[in-house]
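Reviewer 2 asked us to include a model.

Predict the structure of this chain.
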Amino acid sequence: SRLRQDALIEDFHQRTRLDPSSTAEWDILNSDVLRAGNGIGGTGIDGPFRVPPNRTVFIDTNINGGIRQFTEVLVEAGARVEVSGLNPLRIFSTGDVELRGEILAEGGRGEDGLSATGGRVIQGGDPGPGGGRGGRANFPLAPLVGEVGRSPLGTDGGGQGGIRSDQVSGGGGGGGHASFGGNDLALASSGLGGKPYGDNEISMLLGGSGGGAGGNGIGGLPEADDTGGGGGGGGGAVSVSTARTFLLSGGRISVNGGPGGDAAPSGSGRSPGGGGGGGGSGGSIRVEALFSAEIVRGSLNHFGADGGNGGLRGGRPGARGADGRLRLYVLSGNREGSGAGKSFAMSRFLDVGTDHAMFSFDASNPETGEVVLGGGVKDLQVPEGLPQNSVMRVLFQGARVLSTDPRLPDFETVTAWTSRIDDLDGYRFIRWRLEFDIGLDIETARRPVVREIAVRFSYF
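Predicted model (structure tokens):
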């Protein structure tokens, strides 16, 4: 077979090939550049974060976009970190992260319904950071149906509200996330569960969605209505990135969805009462550590991303919210050095087709994968941004075809990273990883910008 040049080219003009675990900022704001980003562990500019035993501290993610950049994190036993705000919580640490206590970013419980409330609005549960609020019951703008739960970033994961009825009032649908939210299929007046959204790799850090509110029960006059319960709030979203180790020793991170509120019970001679509020869906937890991520045996409830239960009483109960998502990454087995100030860009698995079995990439040292810039290397072009003689490493990884769907890689067959791309001859799916020192100046947070990089492959 004949050699074909430039079979695969990556010039960072688009984000479609970006792996979500990349710590570099790839084509931010359509700028056609690769920025070093915060790297693994961030800048450490906020100093150490230590919470003493039995102390509670609060983090508001409306401040600084929810980003905290520490030199170490230690939450002692009995300590609690309670998180609120519109944005997800993103914790970076240049040093170790150890959790003996709790980080709580949960959705709130929907308000219980009341009898004979007239125009009283029953509130939905507050969302965790980056999540959606639960739907309101007895809401004037939606008098015949409970309000739909909110969703993050315009997704349609919110549970629908139950319908007001003088027969059997419907419960609210559960918020959706990793799957569809629950709904009461036995009753047409119950709200449908919210739809799934996001992906298993958590390429976007999204919180959970709110559950729908329960429908009102009608007692003859509006002021005699038995109201439905409010929907539970969606769980929040939390990411932790450490340039050293992550240790969970008796502590936990929870982004559970909030439960729906109970409906008002039926009164004497009245309708069956309102429907229960739907539960909010669980949020997202993403942990990445450069060296190791360890959970001490015997620790309970390490991570919580469960959907909230539906509210009870009255007409029909509310439905349960869907569970959220969890990902843990260990980015390197190398324990040499601190790892701070390092960053990487990585592609998704690229389908190279079935006609090609051999690859070549000759711009790096086949033993180490290192590329020294400024030495006449043609395959990696960095005309400005990084200093001359900065060392970059190019590594490759392969995967076989998924037996149930030949369009996808089988992650059970993923190889170890290698600097020799010809180790992957015969693989249909390959991906590359570009590692570099970001030359970080913590005090001023200066970071290099790469104006042009082209990774070029040839295959036979």
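The chain is about 0% helix and 25% strand. Confidence is low (pLDDT under 50) at residues 1-6, 333-340, 374-383, 439-446. We have added this to the supplementary material.
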